[in-house]
Design a protein that fits this description.
The complex is a heterodimer of chains A (166) and B (577). Chain A has 166 residues and is α+β, with helices and mostly antiparallel strands. The longest helix of chain A is centred in the N-terminal third of the chain and has 13 residues. Chain A starts with a strand and ends with a strand. Chain B is of the alpha/beta class and 577 residues long. Chain B folds into 3 domains: 169 residues, Thiamin diphosphate (ThDP)-binding fold, Pyr/PP domains (Rossmann fold), CATH 3.40.50.970; 162 residues, 3-Layer(aba) Sandwich (Rossmann fold), CATH 3.40.50; 177 residues, Rossmann fold. Chain B contains 25 helices and 20 strands. In chain B, the strands form 4 sheets. Chain B has a 6-stranded parallel beta sheet with strand order 3-2-4-5-7-6, with helices on both faces. In chain B, strands 11-10-9-12-13-14 form a 6-stranded parallel beta sheet, sandwiched between helices. Chain B starts with a helix and ends with a helix. The chains are: A alpha+beta (166), B alpha/beta (577). The interface between A and B is medium-sized, with 22 and 19 residues. Chain B: This is Acetolactate synthase. Chain B: One of its GO terms (cellular component) is acetolactate synthase complex. Chain B: InterPro entries: Acetolactate_synth_lsu, AHAS_TPP, DHS-like_NAD/FAD-binding_dom, THDP-binding, Thiamin_PyroP_enz_cen_dom, Thiamin_PyroP_enz_TPP-bd_dom, TPP_enz, TPP_enzyme_TPP-bd. Chain B: It catalyses: 2 pyruvate + H(+) = (2S)-2-acetolactate + CO2.
């Protein structure tokens, strides 16, 4: 979804979700290629198609919302970044390096007892890595939430599934 | 060359203060009346207002100002304009904003704000009114650059009055009212994120025409969208052409003449038997500008179970929100009806259906037992209807008196009915009457209120007296919160928890304290006399009617029930014989 980058616009959108009783799984916000316009990506869990349609319509009513696109069922590029702080005594470090390699994750910080692993990818991939690192002892996780848009010149598809991304 | 001219024009434009920009913008918008209340943060605005020539009504509470603006907007169709100061002034308009949002009334509301430099420091009379009002406004602004003020005001008037109307708030920090800038009010409004759909989709219109030709039991449910679009004439034309009966929502009343043979009455919790049964039995439901509110539909499980639903609405989000809709038509009601009237198609064969509906109308009309020894509230409304030839503007609060007014005042004309529908705001009726009277100076305005709601905004009597507005304030006095009492009687084992007020003040004396003539009536005869007297006077009059206190509003669809499960339907005695 694209919005005018005006003061309070995020507030308006999250307020709308609260007012209409929808739960937000994740939000990402950032600038687009056009000055003054931001892109927001929401992951929302909905029960049915009607709710998804209702959310889209309510968002569209906001004056500062320029375009809403439900891309749940479209070919999309969706990425999330996660920072994972893992307990890592020197003895297991090599093991962790090997483990994260297929994920194309990298070590971005090393201290005496821990490592910080950075991974980007679809949420499932991030989940999988977190799962693999759990046995070593995860101290902290920070995730950005999903940001996404459609591949190439895709057009809007019609049906909805949960969770859906706008 | 053209650029040079624009540049020259810019140079010629003198720099004026933000306060003066506001005044100039209101003049450019041809604002006839401003409802407001001054205070610290808006002093520079009020200073410029002083000799501006604009008409400002000083209400005695900001809530009064915004409800008056709503009444004005409802009758005139123009945006109501409100000015309130920062902090408490601004928070006092919150109820009115919500009310206007729910009932789609165009308002442009200016609130003062503490100076930009101290925003966020919990300064004196600071309130985050932008944050507070985001979910209850159609849109809102805070002025952060003086050069943007004219554009913001222009956009606000545009947004408030187009598409589905609603309230727009502009929060102006005090420094923005004294800073100077260039005033350019000729620029075009450019809002790429706001492009309401006005004209219907032709394919959907054809689908509806097709559905009508197949239908055996079609019915139109018309809401306030018809009134906002000024589409009463088109609605009548369409209904007559297709022979389809019409039902109104509470807020739609007056859109279709109440004495028309195709009119079935109001739908919903206190709707007529015929209207509710028609909604239950219909095979095609054409909703025009109504939003399927829960008070209209009752339990959705039993709502129009056999019907194909078509919905014409300017707000796409209302279509399919509560009721699955087969034929969605996003459009202005007038545009859609105009197109429907000109379509070629076989009208529905509704003869048998209309016969059935007429039988219900005869058998189960709205009914009550009269008792001339007291004032029956239903009788009271009928008397007002007769004495005003059905032409008065009627304003109400919420509750029993509102339902009786809706049931027994037969609105034959549009834009005569001002009530708080969606939000159900007590204290709405009296200030709304002020706005309504100012919007139509020659109309007879009757403000029908309850004894409890009246006391929530009664200070506005002072404005009525000051401006000598010939409003007739009718208090339906049952010394209780009537609708609360009714629900407690029916659903809470007659445990009248905090709903009875036997020590109500002497309203006649109260009115006299405001220098307003007042009368009291306790029997039907007295009621007729005081009403006649009141309507013969070209000045404000307050009437205190001691009505039968334990009277209930019927018929009634109990909460959670379907429309077909009405109680309190009294069959007409003649038809029983």
């Amino acid at each position: 979804m694209t919005v005018n980058n005006r003061p309070g616009v995020l507030n308006r959108i999250t307020g709308l979700f609260t007012k209409r009783h929808y739960n937000i799984e994740s939000i990402t916000v950032g600038h687009t290629e056009i000055e003054g316009i931001s892109r927001m990506t929401f992951v929302v869990n909905v029960e049915d198609e009607r709710t998804a349609e209702q959310i889209t319509k309510q968002l569209n009513k906001q004056i500062d919302v320029l375009k809403v696109n439900d891309i749940t069922d479209q070919a999309i590029v969706a990425r999330e970044l996660a920072l994972i702080k893992v307990s890592a005594a020197p003895a297991v470090r090599q093991e962790i390096y090997t483990l994260i390699e297929p994920f194309r994750a990298s070590i971005v910080d090393v201290s005496r007892e821990s490592l910080v692993v950075q991974v980007t990818g679809e949420p499932e991939k991030v989940e999988a890595l977190i799962d693999l690192l759990k046995p070593y002892g995860i101290k902290e996780v920070a995730r950005t939430g999903t940001t996404a848009f459609t591949r190439g010149s895709q057009k809007t598809a019609a049906s909805y599934k949960t969770p859906f991304i706008i | 060359m053209a650029n040079m001219k624009v540049e020259e024009k810019r140079k010629q434009r003198t720099r004026i203060s933000g306060a003066l920009m506001l005044i100039e913008a209101l003049k450019a918008e041809k604002v006839e009346v401003i409802f407001g209340y001054p205070g610290g943060a808006v002093l520079p605005i009020y200073d410029k207002l002083y000799d501006s020539g604009l008409f400002h009504v000083l209400t005695r509470h900001e809530q009064g100002a915004i409800h008056a603006a709503e009444g004005y907007a409802r009758i005139s169709g123009k945006p109501g304009v409100v000015i309130a100061t920062s902090g408490p002034g601004a928070t006092n308009i919150v109820t009115g904003l919500t009310d206007a949002m729910m009932d789609s009334l165009p308002l442009v509301v200016f609130t003062g704000q503490v100076a930009s430099s101290v925003i966020g420091s919990d300064a004196f009379q600071e309130a985050d009114i932008l944050g507070i009002t985001m979910p209850i406004t159609k849109h809102s602004y805070q002025v952060r650059d003086i050069q943007e003020l004219p554009k913001i005001i222009k956009e606000a008037f545009h947004i408030a009055t187009t598409g589905r109307p609603g309230p727009v708030l502009i929060d102006i920090p005090k420094d923005m009212t004294t800073l100077e800038g260039e005033f350019d009010y000729e620029q075009d409004v450019q809002l790429p994120g706001y492009q309401p759909t006005i004209h219907p989709n032709h394919l959907q219109i054809r689908k509806l025409v097709e559905a009508v030709s197949q239908a055996k039991k079609p019915v139109i449910l018309a809401g306030a969208g018809v009134l906002h679009a000024n589409a009463s004439k088109e609605l009548q034309q369409y209904a007559e052409q297709q022979n389809i009966p019409v039902i109104h929502t509470l807020l739609g009343l007056g859109g279709f003449p109440a004495d028309h043979p195709l009119f079935l009455g109001m739908a919903g919790m206190h709707g007529t038997y015929t209207a509710n049964m028609a909604l239950y039995e219909c095979d095609l439901l054409i909703n025009i500008g109504a939003r399927f509110d829960d008070r209209v539909t009752g339990n959705l499980k039993y709502f129009a179970p056999n019907a194909t639903v078509a919905h014409i609405d300017i707000d796409p989000a209302e279509i399919g929100k509560n009721v699955p809709t087969k034929i969605p038509i996003v459009s202005d009601a007038k545009e859609a009806l105009k197109e429907l009237v000109h379509q070629e198609g076989k009208p529905a064969d509704t003869a048998a259906w209309l016969a059935q509906l007429n039988e219900w109308k005869m058998k189960f009309p709205l009914a009550y037992q009269n008792d001339a020894q007291t004032v029956k509230p239903q009788k009271l409304i009928e008397m007002i209807y007769e004495l005003t030839n059905g032409e008065a503007i009627v304003t109400t609060d919420v509750g029993q008196h509102q339902m009786w007014a809706a049931q027994y005042y037969k609105f034959n004309k549009p834009h005569r009915w001002v009530t708080s529908g969606g939000l159900g705001t007590m204290g709405f009726g009296l200030p709304a009457a002020i706005g309504a009277q100012l919007a139509d100076k020659n109309a007879t305005v009757v403000s029908i209120v309850g004894d409890a709601g009246f006391q929530m905004t009664l200070q506005e009597l002072s404005v009525i007296q000051e401006l000598n507005l010939p409003i007739k304030v009718v208090i339906v006095n049952n010394q209780s919160l009537g609708m609360v009492r009714q629900w407690q009687q029916l659903f809470y084992e007659k445990r009248y928890s905090h709903s009875l007020i036997p020590n109500q003040p002497d309203f006649v004396k109260l009115a006299e304290a405001y220098n307003i003539k007042a009368f009291r009536a306790k029997t039907e005869e007295e009621a007729v006399n005081v009403l006649k007297q009141a309507f013969s006077l070209k000045e404000p009059v307050l009437l205190d009617f001691h009505v039968k206190a334990d009277e209930n509003v019927y018929p009634m669809v109990a909460p959670g029930k379907g429309l077909h499960e009405m109680v309190g339907v009294k069959p007409c005695e003649e038809s029983l014989q």
